[in-house]
């Protein structure tokens, strides 16, 4: 019999999971455009074969049942369309606010909050939170959760910068440093300061932990 190159694979219950983007930002003729992935929207309709039974007069129970199911189907369709309409609103605004991210890459996120978006597109923040939950966008730079586009801000010489951008910078600083063991949180603070970003050591430590990076003592 053939030998299994990865014997432990037979005992693993982990399956590969794939993310399907709900929307995409594509460059068309030099400009960025929003594309909604309609393929992931379920095709829901009421079977015409059942509709003819709605006119049945001698079976009121069946008629009530079918009317109830039709109303539920209509309600579901309305809900899906509402979500898609608002998702499109969200993405159109994100394309405007985070244009540099989509155009130049992840290092160009700007601070933006869900509350601010809620005010701008006049959709309840709770509703927005549900709309963007587990939603992804395909970009030239990869697939990203919509939640990364909402973050607090930190002060920089050129203006506010996104906390997510600062996290990326911390990761890049540690990765590029010749001897990361000597790169303390205070040293990272100093490197960021040279780049025009003023941040406290405890903030660097907090972001480093969120990035699952050990302290310089343990690296």
What does this entry show, briefly?
Helix content is 45%, strand content 11%. With 219 residues, it is an alpha+beta fold.
List keywords for this structure.
Arc Repressor Mutant, subunit A, 219 residues, 11% strand, 6 strands, four-stranded mixed β-sheet, alpha+beta, 2 domains, 8 helices
Order of helices and strands: EEHHHHHEEEEHHH
- Which radius of gyration do the C-alpha atoms yield? 25 Å
Proportion of residues in helical segments:
40-55%
Provide the spatial order of strands within the biggest beta sheet.
Answer: 2-1-3-4
Low-confidence stretches: 6-14
Mean pLDDT, all residues: 81
Sheet with the most strands, sense and barrel status: 4 strands, mixed
Give the CA-CA distance, first to last residue.
45 Å
Q: What's the tally of helices?
A: 8
Q: What is the overall shape?
A: elongated
- Count of distinct strands: 6
Please identify the structural class as seen in this structure. alpha+beta
Domain count, please report it.
2
Question: Beta-sheet strand percentage?
Answer: 5-15%
